[in-house]
Design goal:
The protein is mainly alpha-helical. Helix content is 68%, strand content 0%.
Amino acid sequence: MNEDILTKDELKAIDEATADYGAATNYWLLKIQICFIIGLTLMVFAGFYPDQVIRWLKLAETPYKNTLYELLELRAITITTTIISGYLCYRYLPNIKIALGIILSIVVVNLFMDIPVYYSAKLAEGDWDLSIIFVARSVLIYFLASLYLTAEYLPCPPRELFANPFRSSDYSRAVK
């Protein structure tokens, strides 16, 4: 009774047919690590260097400068909370798609709400260095959206964050 239900050729054919699902999660760990790095960078600048951020945004001469400090402090707290909850969800939550959707919506809404509040003076002057923050936040949105779309193919928890993203992992196609 030790007969296999499928032959080795059939198993190989099934594995090759599902190879595209494995490709959907290529570099998923690198994407997650880049998202955390961008989030941490934004949090550090907003939380620890608000004077430089306000000068960089050319809002140093505005009458509501004290309000900007409070807004940047609130933004740093929000980013910190999102990073911590994102890490805990990534590490331990079996269905990470819901958490990724919530974090993606927070990031998109924050970007569009920041344009009139923080970027208006810089946009009016047409400074090219504002594109740095737009590129970083666009990369963040793209990677979060990519992870959201392929969330069902990510490995089962507990997931590692501080691992080499370039090593091949056999568990990236784990079925949940």
